[in-house]
């Protein structure tokens, strides 16, 4: 896997919607400023995620406050830079980390596994034709597909003021492996 994605988030609540929204925007702006310093297309990409504000209701009805959340997503191939950035963002907490394949890596792996799956299909078709006493086969119908499982490792992190010195440290990350599966199925007509 060559792609790391970290989602940062924060929640705020208060009596006034405008105040909660302002607090969320300030936290997001602070995190964005830090993230933009290391942003580099394809290596460290930065984008905002969900931003929501909704009323909090009292048990007997009526609005008794407001609650909201904001997200920032940092993803890319430069895992050391993203890891270090995770330690420097203080206004948001890490809500989720996920690993995956970049489009380029996925396309290369899919091409390789598809070629292997097609070769295996042809070998099996020829072997079965021979077992039935035929010289060969022609392909009547074929379907080719690839699949990469959804990969992600959720990490819930809560930062408190007592952990502020530890929060500056890079997030320890290590990419693993993933499976990319190609399937070839179809029907053949055996020939003499």
3D architecture notes:
By secondary structure, the chain is α+β, with helices and mostly antiparallel strands. The protein has a domain at 3-102 and 150-178: 2-Layer Sandwich (Alpha-Beta Plaits). The protein contains 4 helices and 6 strands; from the N terminus they run E-H-E-E-H-E-H-E-H-E. It has helices at 17-38, 79-88, 103-131, 164-167; strands at 3-14, 45-57, 63-76, 93-100, 136-147, 181-191. Strands 2-3-1-4 form a 4-stranded antiparallel sheet, with helices on one face. A two-stranded antiparallel sheet has the order 5-6. The model is unreliable at 151-166 (pLDDT under 50).
The assigned structural class equals alpha+beta
Percent in helix: 25-40%
Q: Tell me, rounded to a whole number, the average pLDDT.
A: 87
CATH topology of the domain at 3-102 and 150-178: Alpha-Beta Plaits
Q: Please tell me the CATH architecture of the domain at 3-102 and 150-178 by its name.
A: 2-Layer Sandwich
Query: Which of globular, elongated, flat, extended, rod-shaped describes the shape?
Result: elongated
Radius of gyration: 26 Å
Largest sheet: 4 strands, antiparallel
Task: Please give the count of helices.
Answer: 4
- How much of the sequence is in beta strands? 35-45%
Q: What is the string of helix and strand elements?
A: EHEEHEHEHE
- How far from one another are the termini? 47 Å
Give start-end ranges of low-pLDDT stretches: 151-166
The CATH class of the domain at 3-102 and 150-178 is identified as Alpha Beta
* Count of extended strands: 6
Strands of the biggest beta sheet: in what spatial order?
A: 2-3-1-4
């Amino acid at each position: 896997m060559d792609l790391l994605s970290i989602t940062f988030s924060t929640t705020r609540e208060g009596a006034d919607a405008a105040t909660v929204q302002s607090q969320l925007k300030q936290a997001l702006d602070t995190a964005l400023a830090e993230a933009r310093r290391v942003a580099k297309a394809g290596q460290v990409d930065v984008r905002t995620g969900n931003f929501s504000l909704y009323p909090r209701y009292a048990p007997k009805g009526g609005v008794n406050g407001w609650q909201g959340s904001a997200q920032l997503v940092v993803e890319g191939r430069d895992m050391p830079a993203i890891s270090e950035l995770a330690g420097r963002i203080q206004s948001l907490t890490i809500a989720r980390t996920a690993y995956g394949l970049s489009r380029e890596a996925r396309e290369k792996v899919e091409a390789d596994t598809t070629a292997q799956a097609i070769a295996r299909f042809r070998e099996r078709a020829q072997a079965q034709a021979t077992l039935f006493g035929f010289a060969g086969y022609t392909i009547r119908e074929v379907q080719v597909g690839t699949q990469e499982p959804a990969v992600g490792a959720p990490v819930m992190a809560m930062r408190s003021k007592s952990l502020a010195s530890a929060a500056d440290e890079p997030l320890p990350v290590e990419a693993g492996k993933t499976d990319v599966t190609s399937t070839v199925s179809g029907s053949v007509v055996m020939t003499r």
